[in-house]
Amino acid sequence: MDKRTTEQEAVAELRDGMTIGIGGWGSRRKPMSIVREILRSPVKDLTVVTYGGPDVGLLCNYGKVKKLIYGFVSLDSIPLEPHFRKARQAGAIEAAELDEGMLQWGLLAASHKLPFLPTRSGLGSSVLDINPDFKMVKSPYADGEELVAMPALELDVAFIHMNRGDVRGNGQYLGPDPYFDDIYCRAAKKRFMTVEKILDTAAMANEGPLQTRIINRTMVDGVIEAPNGAHFTECPTDYGRDEAFQKEYAATAKDPEAWEAFKARYLDVETEAEYQEAVRNR
Amino acid sequence: MSDTATRGEICAVACADAFRGNGEILASCFGTAPAIGARLAKMTFEPDLLMTDGVCTVVDMPNPVSGEGHEQIVEAWLPFRTIFDHVWNGNRHVIMAASQIDQFGNQNFACIGEHAKPKAQLLGMRGAPGNTISHTTSYWVANQTAKVFVPEVDVVSGVGHDRAAKLPAESTQGYDVRFVISNLAVYDFETPDKRMRLKSVHPGVTVDQVVENTGFELVIEGDVPETRLPTDDELSLIREKIDPKGVLGREVPNPE
Question: Which residues, 6 or more positions from B148, have their beta carbon under 8 angstroms from its beta carbon?
């Protein structure tokens, strides 16, 4: 089966009000070509579930986010994501803030088709006030312990970015950390994987050890070849973070004129190819 | 040499002392003084501490906080998803930052103001709720003022002793909020009602100065001892091996 598709076709699957999951972590291996396509699309009122980075800042800035389910939002080398901060401080988004382990637990519950997973995380903290719909569950065993029943975070659509993939939807990461990308895929009804490079299945064995092959084709509905698609986040071993570009992006939060110029130059273009060209030409 | 230790070095050594007796656990840090402290503890009295390169590799000795890196020997792989396994298993001691902390050690680094529309959005909850309920947690405050040591935190990210005490005992079997280290003093919660106690003041700091920079009533018992000075060996390790470029001075400026 050939699952190759494009960013446009993938994003065309989104409807207003859907819940989407975005893989990666902070400013690391984010499916940014998809994020940029969402910015170009008319879709709105999204619930976004993620270990947040610039994906969150950009989507908030374009008014795409109704609700954010997250543990933190950071650009790593710039600890606070300025565009996300701006949206939060304007009260522009509903902020379902979690402990970051609870976020993993919610995705894992959804991936296993369980209604919830029990945890002690959140007890005693403001997480339970911020999320008043969360319930407790009592252990049915002799201990009878009361635990937080972290509800499944079911996703309509998940987007992840891998280093390598084949046309069938097998995916491979080559950096040091898989993050939670496989869990996002299993937690979602529809799954799209962008990759730096599409290879013959057999050729993927030459790229890295067996353990790098964490995505199998049952977890993916569409594959998109997106070279430099995680830009400006890092995508080791293919490339590091574009720190200069990230700095430029972050600085625009303080200066509306600079933001308009940044937007016109890089984001308000027709295609990902034009974005990549604008990045090359800067 | 000890009489020439900087305030930052005194703080870093106090952070190192926070790990004393921890043995073979994962030591994690937010901030420069804790990062120096953990390395110093591992080089001297706590050689079995487990530390990462700051990303996802456990290394025999993490790189210095400034200057040239060294050849790190990889001990194990610790990607983000396994951090929570470590946290919930309990064999970890983290020194986290605090934008606000109260007298029971409730900590906030999520946001300032009302959560629905904060005055200042900060990092977010990160792992603080799970860390505090699961394993030993201490805090590092690089610039203590009454705006950081507050009567009440705006949002509880890290759970304090009063809130933990209201939970059933089985929920808090791993709970252990232990020390707060600031640029002025060291604090613990060794009091009957688990309120914050002034454990020691750094040399050159007065108790009055501490009180002025605290927005709640501290437990102060008799003559408060001074935080210990670094030994000559500790100072050489910090200056030559751990922070040769002296970036610690930027986090903790030396008082005039």
Answer: B98, B99, B100, B101, B141
The answer to whether B112 contacts chain A (CB < 8 Å) is: no
Whether A221 contacts A169, CB under 8 Å: yes
CATH of the domain at B83: 3.40.1080.10
Q: In angstroms, rounded to a whole number, what is the distance separating the alpha carbons of residues B63 and B42?
A: 12
Q: Considering its fold, how many domains does chain B have in total?
A: 1
Structure ipTM = 0.95
Residue B186: enclosing H or E segment and its boundaries? strand B185-188
User: Range of A130's domain?
Assistant: 118-151
Q: Give the residue among B31, B19, B34, B43 at the shortest CA–CA distance from B231.
A: B43
Same domain, A216 and A157: yes
Tens digits of per-residue pLDDT, B37-91? 999 999 999 999 999 988 899 999 999 999 999 999 999 999 999 999 999 999 9
- Contact partners, residue B147, CB within 8 Å, separation at least 6: B100, B215
Residue B1 has pLDDT above 60, yes or no: no
CA distance A254 to B96: 28
- The total of other beta-carbon atoms located within 10 Å of residue B247's CB is 16
Q: Are residues A90 and A208 in the same domain?
A: yes
Task: Give, in degrees to the nearest 5, the angle at Cα A88 between A66 and A256.
Answer: 100
Contact B159 A97 (CB under 8 A): no
pLDDT tens digits for range B243-253: 999 999 999 99
Does A123 share its domain with A13?
no
Which among A22, A1, A52 is positioned nearest to A157, based on CA atoms?
A22
- Residues present in chain B in total: 256
Both tokens of B236, joined, read 């050489």
Nearest to A134 by CA among A170, A105, A177: A105
Torsion of Cα atoms, A126 then B117 then A60 then B131, to 10°? -20
CA B171 vs CA A147, B176, B189, B208: distances in Å:
8, 12, 19, 38
Count of structural domains within chain A: 2
Of A74, A121, A143, which is closest to B133 when you measure between CB atoms?
A: A121
Q: Are residues A264 and A129 in the same domain?
A: no
- Among partner residues B56, B122, B157, which is closest to A125 by beta-carbon distance? B157
Q: Is residue B239 part of a domain?
A: no
The interface residues of chain B toward chain A in range 73-102, judged by CB-CB distance below 8 A, are: 77, 79-81, 83-84, 87-88
HSE, side-chain direction, 13 A CA sphere, residue B123: 22
Instruction: Tell me which residue range forms the domain holding B117.
Output: 2-234
Over range A53-60, report the average pLDDT: 98
Q: Which residue of B79, B83, B121 is in closest CB contact with A178?
A: B79
SS3 content of chain B, % helix, strand, coil (to 5): 30, 20, 50
A136 and A71, same domain (yes or no): no
